[in-house]
Write a structure and sequence with these properties.
Strand order of the largest sheet of chain A: 1-10-9-4-3-2
Low-confidence stretches of chain A: none
Mean pLDDT of chain A: 87
Order of helices and strands of chain B: HHHEHHHHHHHHEHHHHH
Helix content of chain A: 10-25%
CATH topology of the largest domain in chain B: Cytochrome Bc1 Complex, Chain C
Number of strands of chain B: 2
Shape of chain A: elongated
Shape of chain B: globular
Structural class of chain A: alpha+beta
Largest sheet of chain B: 2 strands, antiparallel
Strand order of the largest sheet of chain B: 1-2
Low-confidence stretches of chain B: none
Largest sheet of chain A: 6 strands, antiparallel
Oligomer: heterodimer
Chain lengths: 157, 371
């Protein structure tokens, strides 16, 4: 290229310059990667992985068919319901933007006040902008007790 | 005044001149730079208002940090103490709260004027980008500001506002946890938003304001009269363009004339600010309760358009619409140039500004009067 030809010897990159610059760049990149990975752990908390824990919610005798209970389990608000002997645990965290969709006994619906999201008794979307039904947690009945598997959010919120 | 001539000056001026060798006369000349006649009208002089309010926010903000405690256990109580117990605490907090609202109004009015008069057009596209950056920083200031109060509105606005990040493709969930410092809004969220509000954002806004002003000085303000006459001349309608293709226009000096206009507006803003604070002292809602979203919860009025928009559309469509709107707004000068090249329409900005302004106002009123 013309530009290359016009360069004086002073401007030309020597092998030594090239190697030194390359070594410096590589070292800096290595430091960056190491510092970045440590820094990442600092700014991106361990809470990224939330363990699921099985929590004793209540005894089956306290939740007869046709009844509901609003409970706080492992930092999660949960509506426990016994429909003809089948126990379900529905999260009240609205699937739209995370407000609390409270269970309203009078209208038999979950109502989120933030953007007026309405869910039916099974947590299915009735109306509003929310993308999906309310989350449901796995329920297990052991020796007459109701256990619910919830994400461990204790200390959160 | 060069270094050599400075050395000849006696007394403290000479002493200072040798150690801080700036040429005062150059800056005096710069300050007197002529600005076009239309700048005499107040709505062309609104750019200084957000700057004045930023200074007020800075001073009152520093005062508030002396008593505010950014921990969920103490935040609400410390704000209660500022509002109810400290002498003139309510006043400082009130000025800060109303100042933020006026700052948003000032930025929006300034941008509306810039938009409708087409002042963002070549060669000022980059300064429009800086301006949109200033709007984003101002709104982030407001959002992080009311997140710190830790009342019910704070908590749920923070929950909803940060949750929107989760919907950004690929990086969204990581961003959400990065902002919150965990999966939910917790004490770690507050200690992230606080330094953002009092450290990072002020630095960012100061840098952007400096860049904004430097670009205005480099490029000058748009000479609207000259531009219009040039346009007419191009179309051969009237007003002939002289010699070098430039059209002469009447001007007046930036200092002191334009500065006086800014000062008069500034005084009016101060009067409004103080009166608002006295007539409507700052309020505090019930303390944040993560287990209970109150029935009638709404963000501050300037987020009403977004709030109502999100109620109207399914989540992803609503957020995608917002994203497209924001990108269109930020890169508007380039879209506008394209529209003009392709369709020869130079008034689309006025039509669009009218539609958006009326739409936003309608959404605000709709939300204001709905339960």
């Amino acid at each position: 290229m013309d530009e290359e030809k016009n360069k004086t010897p002073d401007q030309a990159v020597t092998r030594r310059d090239f190697l030194v610059s390359g070594a410096m760049a590589t070292s800096l990149a290595a430091v960056g990667v190491v510092a970045g990975s440590f820094g990442w752990q600092f700014v991106y908390p361990a809470a990224a992985k939330i363990p699921t824990v099985q929590v004793l919610a209540t005894s089956l005798s306290k939740l007869p068919p046709g009844t509901r209970k609003v409970m706080k389990l492992g930092g999660n608000e949960v509506v426990l319901m016994n429909t003809n002997g089948t126990v379900r645990a529905i999260s009240t965290v609205c699937t739209h933007l995370g407000c609390r969709a409270a269970w309203e006994e009078g209208r038999q619906q979950f109502v989120c006040p933030c953007h007026t999201g309405i869910f039916d008794v099974n947590g299915k979307v009735v109306s509003g902008p929310q993308p999906r039904a309310l989350d449901e947690f796995a329920v297990e009945i052991k020796s007459g007790n109701v256990y619910v598997a919830v994400p461990q959010k204790e200390g959160a919120g | 005044m060069s270094m050599e001539s400075t050395q000849q000056v006696k007394g403290w001026r000479g002493w200072l001149g040798q150690r801080f060798p700036i040429d005062v006369k150059v800056y005096e000349e710069l300050a007197k730079e002529p600005v076009p006649k239309h700048m005499e009208r107040w709505w062309f002089a609104l750019g200084g208002t957000p700057l004045l309010l930023f200074v007020i926010q800075g001073v009152t903000g520093i005062l508030l940090t002396w008593y505010y405690v950014p921990r969920p256990e103490f935040a609400y109580e410390s704000v209660t103490r500022i509002s109810n117990e400290l002498p003139f605490g309510w006043w400082v907090r009130g000025i800060h709260q109303w100042g933020s609202q006026l700052m948003i109004i000032a930025v929006i009015l300034h941008m509306l004027r810039t938009f409708t008069t087409g002042a963002y057009r070549k060669p000022r596209e980059l300064n429009w980008l800086v301006g949109t950056g200033l709007l984003v920083v101002t709104l982030t200031f407001a959002f992080t500001g009311y997140a710190l109060v830790n009342d019910q509105l704070s908590y749920w606005a923070t929950t909803v506002g940060t949750n929107m990040f989760a919907e950004i493709p690929v990086v969204g969930p990581i961003m959400l946890q990065m902002i919150r410092g965990g999966v939910a809004v917790t004490a770690d969220t507050m200690t992230r938003l606080y330094p953002l509000h009092i450290g990072a954002l002020p630095t960012a806004i100061a840098a952007l304001i400096a860049l904004h002003v430097v670009l205005i000085r480099f490029l000058g303000v748009t000479d609207l009269d000259a531009r219009e006459r040039e346009r007419l001349a191009r179309l051969g309608k009237s007003a002939t363009v002289k010699g070098n293709g430039k059209v002469e226009s009447s001007h007046f000096p930036f200092f002191p004339d334009h500065v006086m206009t800014e000062l008069v507006i500034g005084m009016a803003v101060l009067i409004i600010l103080v009166n608002l604070t006295i007539l409507f002292p700052p309020t505090l809602g019930p303390k944040a309760d993560p287990a209970n979203t109150p029935l009638h919860i709404k963000p501050e009025w300037y987020f009403y358009p977004v709030f109502r928009w999100l109620k109207l559309f399914p989540l992803q469509i609503g957020l995608a619409g917002l994203g497209v709107g924001v990108l269109g707004f930020v890169f508007w000068p380039f879209i506008d140039a394209f529209v003009e090249r392709r369709f020869g329409n130079r008034d689309i900005n006025v039509i669009l500004a009218f539609i958006v302004a009326v739409g936003a106002l309608a959404f605000i009123l709709w939300e204001l009067f709905s339960v």
